[in-house]
Structures are given as C-alpha cells and as structure tokens.
Amino acid sequence: MGLIETDAIVLRSIKLGEADKIATALTSQEGVVRGVARGARRLKSRFGASLEPFTLIRLSFFEKETRELVTITGAKITKSYFDLTRDDSVFVTLEYVAGLILEFTPLRAPDERFFRMLKACLEALAESPGEVTWVCRYCEVWILKLAGFLPDSTKCGSCRKPLGREPGGAALNSGSNFECFDCADSRGIVISPDALSMLNTALKTRPGSWTHEAARKDRESSSEVGKLLRILIARALGREPLPRSSNA
C-alpha cells in the first residue's frame, strides 16, 4: 500500500535492537498505529525527539497487509509537551491514560474523536498542570463514552425516569447502568446528584473548562467520581487497568 500521512500523538516508544524504535501512536485518521522507525536511536537520526511519548506529530508511514507493524518513514513535531512531561506525576498520569486508550481502542480502528479528546486534554494540562487529576478524570469519562461503556447518567436504565432530581441521586446496578431508587430497590452503589452532574457536564464541556469547575468541588464529590470511574473501567475490562497512576 502507499504512503499514509496523518496527525498523531505518540503514546509509547520502546527500543528495538541497537538503533531502532517501535512507536505506538494515536492518529487522527488511522486509529492506533504501531510501527518501526529504523535508525531512530542513532545520534543523528532524522526522527530526533519526535517519537517521544505525548508529542504531537505529523506521522508518515508505509504498511503491508500481512504485517501488524507499519514502517515509519517520517515524524515531524507539531507541538512538544517535553516541559510538561518532566513532572513525574504528570508523566505517570499520561502513561495511565495512554494505557487506557490502548485497552479500549483496537489497532487500526479509526475514530477521530479519541484523537481530538486526547489532544484537547494535553492542551488543557499544559495550561493547568496542577489539575492533572481532573484531566485524567475527564479522559476516563470520554474513553468510556467513546468505547460504549459509559452508562446514561441522565435517565434511569429501567424506567427511563430522569435522574438527579431525587435527593439521594441514583444507584449503579450490577449491569453497570444507573437506576432511580425505585427501580434499584436498595441494591447497587449509591451515586450522589453532584457526581451525576459532573459526569453529564463532562460530556458537554471542553476539558479546560470542566477541570477548572471540577477542581472547585468538595473533596467528597471528587473522590466519589474517581471511585465510580474506576469501577466502570474495571467492569468493562474485567480487571483493574495497568499501568496505574498514583493520581488516578
């Protein structure tokens, strides 16, 4: 097949042999791509620092139908987040997010929404590194949403009555759907109205605005949203995700 060029965000990069690298990138047009960059570890490599994790690049590659790995021929940096990733807590959290994307996104399954979401979250994080935990929460919400594992938090999954109007909120049942208390019948995990509202708002707001607002919430609501998302992720995967961020 011919040369493919697309915008991409590098998720992971590992050594291969003495001079090469295998890079995994989330692209805007081709989904997740894994490829070999020949000579990328040489001192005067044409790739330079373009294949470092969480770098926004213009990626060029060739592919063959019989091979899973593509051949990376070029990577031009569009935007670097090197300064941002020098912070260990930020880097570990981004690694966690990258791991989630790879868990929920098959290779070569194009969905530009994943790319746009991660790009917007990197931009928000660059503006407010101190809100790294909430940028992570936002990514978790949208990864679950785009992968089809985020339950509707606006209506009861059984009777379709609007949620969030009852003083106690709602309940998450064993099938990972939200229910009103009448339908839940004292079963499931109780979810507060504030937590439901935060989920709903994340789906309608850009990450920068949402994280600023979420950071103002009380500690109890913040902790509840984090626990809820971890439960949904673990249920979707059938296990806890790895790697795990200390901030996540």
Description:
It is a single chain. Helix 2 (88-104) packs parallel to helix 4 (132-147). The strands form two sheets. Strands 1-2-3-5-4 form a five-stranded mixed β-barrel. It folds into two domains: 4-80, Nucleic acid-binding proteins (OB fold (Dihydrolipoamide Acetyltransferase, E2P), Beta Barrel), CATH 2.40.50.140; 88-237, de novo design (two linked rop proteins), CATH 1.20.1440.120. The protein has helices spanning 82-85, 88-104, 112-127, 132-147, 181-184, 193-202, 207-214, 219-237; strands at 4-16, 20-27, 32-37, 56-62, 70-79, 170-172, 178-179, 189-191. It has eight helices and eight strands, in the order E-E-E-E-E-H-H-H-H-E-E-H-E-H-H-H. The protein is α+β, with helices and mostly antiparallel strands and 248 residues long.
CATH architecture identity of the largest domain: Up-down Bundle
Return the CATH class of the largest domain. Mainly Alpha
Number of strands: 8
Oligomer: single chain
Beta-strand portion reads 15-25%
Average pLDDT number: 91
What string, H for helix and E for strand, traces the elements in order?
EEEEEHHHHEEHEHHH
